[in-house]
Amino acid sequence: MEDIKKIICQAEDNISAWAEEISDYLFNNPELSDEEFNSSAYLADKLRSAGFKVTYPYMGIETAFRADYGNGSGMTVAFPAEYDALPGYGINHDQPAHACGHNWIAGSTLAAARALADISHLFNGNIVVFGTPSEEKSGSKVTLAEKGAFNGIDAVLQMHLGRADCVDTTAMAMTDYVFEFFGKEAHAAKEPENGINALDACHLAIAGINAMRQQFGAGVKIHEIITNGGQTPNIIPGYASMWIFARAVDKELLEKAAARIVNIGKGASLMTGAGFKYKRAENTFYDLKRDVELNSFMKANLAELGITELEEGDKYNCESTDMGNVSYICPTCYTTLSTAHLSDAGLHEQGFVEVAGSQGAKELMHIAAKAMAMTALDVMA
């Protein structure tokens, strides 16, 4: 096994320029969630040219794809690629950008998969690359998981940039709501008593959420914004809306919190007299289940590549990802590599855009690709 792992590392070195080209292309051509038409077509073409059998679009999602390499015998290891960017960057805060490093994720997953394909005569197994759009918004992995895309997959491997080197990662379960309140306009100075203030309902909903934080407990986090608060101060707002994210350390606790949040919205409606409608997101992100054996493979391989100081994930302070839903179906290893030596900027910060396109990130991308490919070989063995 030691010899073949040296060979896979050399195979990744041989395609390093190919992988960097992928990361650079996506970085320089960012597309928002559910709009990744050029990005997905580009990645599908790259895999097709590397000998993969590509299905695109995939399972009814226009910007999703599946790429297969192998003869069907042996174990099957999958690498989910992400490629959606985030809105709101640049000088005027109006540009999409890869402030979460999904360009890097696509580059590392495709590099791991192609390196394995290039030496596939040395092992028995199958490689799958899933093109999974809209991780930042709707979470296509949730939909793909529900439709059976990950059934029959023996292991799933993905890496992400972050503040720490961590294999035993965590992710919170998450859902979101849009609340709408319908009041009655009136002159705010002359006849306010004739109005029903929809914005007040939003404020009361926020106050209700804040009042419940102690009862929600440490395992729940809720954050909200007002998306429409009226048109002008001298008109009682007849319509107002808000957007709420709810997270919890596991999906069962999330559902308990979600029910309370809806009741808070109903209470705000009763207190103000405003009508109330709410809509929950179609996809709910699950918490991340660890696979001890798969993680042990990854730790050993990272150590071989010089990364030995690993942090433990904190389930009370972490983000959410649709990889959690995948982890409920098949063994999943979701690893982060630290960018702390490159910048103090964290994910989704303006400064992280520079990190995601940097030479330092590319060096980490090759470590990620090698470690994932080596771990895939452990699974197949």
Give an account of the 3D structure.
With 381 residues, the protein is an alpha/beta fold. 39% of the residues lie in helices and 21% in strands. It contains 12 helices and 12 strands. It has helices at residues 2-14, 16-28, 37-49, 102-118, 140-146, 198-211, 213-216, 251-272, 292-304, 323-327, 350-356, 359-380, and strands at 53-55, 65-69, 75-81, 86-89, 95-97, 125-131, 155-162, 173-182, 220-228, 239-248, 275-280, 332-338. The protein has a 6-stranded mixed sheet with strand order 1-2-6-3-7-12. The protein has a 4-stranded antiparallel sheet with strand order 9-10-8-11, covered by helices on one side. Strands 4-5 form a two-stranded antiparallel sheet. Strand 4 (86-89) and strand 5 (95-97) form a beta hairpin. The protein is elongated, with a radius of gyration of 23 Å. The mean pLDDT is 97.
SSE topology:
Blueprint (H helix, E strand, L loop, with lengths): L1 H13 L1 H13 L8 H13 L3 E3 L9 E5 L5 E7 L4 E4 L5 E3 L4 H17 L6 E7 L8 H7 L8 E8 L10 E10 L15 H14 L1 H4 L3 E9 L10 E10 L2 H22 L2 E6 L11 H13 L18 H5 L4 E7 L11 H7 L2 H22 L1
Parallel strand pairs: 3-6, 3-7, 7-12
Antiparallel strand pairs: 1-2, 2-6, 4-5, 8-10, 8-11, 9-10
Helix pairs in contact: 1-4, 1-12, 2-4, 4-12, 6-8, 9-12
